[in-house]
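User: Please predict the structure of the protein below. I'd like the answer in structure-token form so I can feed it into my own downstream comparison script.

Assistant: Understood. Taking the following sequence of 778 residues as input:
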Amino acid sequence: MPTSVANRFLLLYGSQTGQAKAIAEEIAEKAGDQNLHADIHCLSLTEKKFFIEREKCVVIITSTTGDGEPPDTALKFVRRLRKKTLPDDYLSHLNYALLGLGDSNYTNFCNCGKSLDKRLQDLGAKRFYDSGWADDAVGLEVAVEPWLDGLWSALKRFLKLPGAEHGGGDADAIMTENKEMINGDSRLNGSTVIENGNKSRSADTQSVHSISNTIPVLTKDLTNGNNQNNLNNSNSAESSVPVCDINQSDCNNSSSHLEQTSSSEKHTDLLVKTLNGTKDNKSNESSMEEKTEASVKVSLPPLSESTLTVPLLPPPFLKIEYNQEQSIDVCDLPRQNDYDFPSAATPVTMATVSDIKTLTSDTAVKKAIFVELDITGSGINYQPGDAISIICPNDTNEVETLLDRLGVLEQIDSCLKILVIEITKKRNASIPKFVSEVSTLRHIFTTCVDIREPPKKALLRVLVEYTSDDAEKRRLQELCSKQGNEDYARFIREPSLSILDILNNFSSCLPPVDRLIEHLPRLQPRPYSVCCSPLTSPGKISFVFNVVETTAECGRTYFRKGVCTGWLEGMSHSAKRDKQVQDTTEKEIVQGIKQLEVSDIKIPIFGRTNQSFHLPDDVTVPVILIGPGTGVAPFIGYLDHRGSQQEAQAETQFGETWLFYGCRHKDRDYIFREKIEHHVSTATLSNLLVSFSRDEQSADAPRYVQDNLRSHGAEIVSLIEEKGAIVYVCGDAKNMAKDVNQAFIDIFSQCKGISSDEARKLVMKLRLHRQYKEDVWT
């Protein structure tokens, strides 16, 4: 219920993976420093903790999930506002500010936020501050930070509070404040001055203004060992992580291994050589002379000579107490402290791996692995097109190497208790909900926190305090500063540096392990599309994935595989060894005895909330399936399902089914080929259009799925407009999905004789009417 407090505003968030919630909590924490009171609630608590129709001032932070859908926590709130019975002036008393989070790799960028923004205005609500759209494809902070800067002044102006013009608000106010400080005025609302990496003045908020660091800090120490052999970049194009320029200083000698200073020799194969301290002094001097490129460790003017605006140091709020005498069985600990998983539609179940095999040849660029799980008795029900989430651990060697780097390897299995510091300055401090209060470091860093996610700026700011080398300290300040946004994106976010990469690059940095637990995000489950049908595989569920491999370059200091894909691939090696043993045993036993099971491995999974990527209930409706690579996975389930339906409904005339499939090489990575050709032979699949992008072929041969789409444009338009065909696209969002979307625009433009803008609107209309559906990922 709203209160009469003059400085109060309602703060709402709709979060799927926790980012919108984290931003809202940051706003709530900073509000007190601005003499404001934030009444914060999740959107799921509508009509329980708040009533939007009774509010005067509200700030909303919401993400977008799926194919432009609201996050699960916002569904109820959005549905309430969508009611057609609501009058046009229903929210005429409401004033709001809205920040939407999204990813421009997906077509419906920030769709939930934009739809909500429009609906609020349709119901009479008014903006007191411009809506913001943050793009995870380039880094949320690029839009979030300036939006938050301006929010405080906007709130104070609307609430008619003092200090509206100097509340850490818009850019003009910030510029004015900086000028005042240069002239010796101390009237800066919550700031810290950094001079050559040293804090000389502090206050209470997290907006920090430095005005005197104008001396370059590039030193020999910062460039030691970077002038290595040129990188062989031949396989980099296939990596899922963006590849840096070949001349970039950190993109060198990816095959060399790290000389471990660890007490444990078993980690030496995990990491590559650190870039510091690997050459003699003469080489270092030569390297300094030749250094011309910026890197994660090195900045150049103007940034290296710039005044910096860096965050205030987040206050510590957790501490760890070890109990060497107490034993603990981590197997008894609840998985991620029993904290609800996002998008979970079912409880977590342990599914038995009944089959696991490689689908591609040994010479394929990417390895595709098929996994079948026995879900008998799990309570998981699914349709073709659904997805499951796999709860995976971090790599064991990587965890041990990180904890060794932090100097706590000896305590890795000791029982510990996490406590909130009694005198912490952090408001509403608490232990992360996904971490058990009593645990071990191994358990926390293996199963609870994400050690691969590029560190956020707040964590980099913390690392500054535990870095002894002045040049390294300055560089970390740059990377977490507003002036260093481009460097942060280029050298940390784009190459996906992990916390271990950061520590390896900044050798003098040694933070306490409890500070990492404060800031590392939750280790999220990984979703995979189902590639089977319950009609043909009762009690089973299967999926396929590419093994993600990332080389040691561009600041990445060790070779790695995907967190989940690498873990699952390890199971395939184990299953293969088991099968070899069983095959030997089978030769010695009497024919007719049941073959041994491939594996007794069990993995934790749960069913995901419905994403509506399903076949139409009306089997007479044609479907157009577009899925190159492993994007074909859900369509294998579609074909199996349709084949079974056709057998059971022989009298029914089914709609046409078209499949556009593509891969690199016909003889290396044409996955599910036998099954696809079987569906062609049984007429389940009406039309199969396959393209091979890397095979030698005639110049006019289609190389990509969009080439085949354009070649059959007239037929596709006819299927969609005359027979109501539904288009399904599955695969890579960053490139393939955008190319396919453009192909449809081109097809409609050409076949209907309309402009590209008109064709684009037509395709968007198909999306809105659920006639063009996507299941894509980055």
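That's the full token string. Confidence is low (pLDDT under 50) at residues 167-193, 195-289, 579-598.
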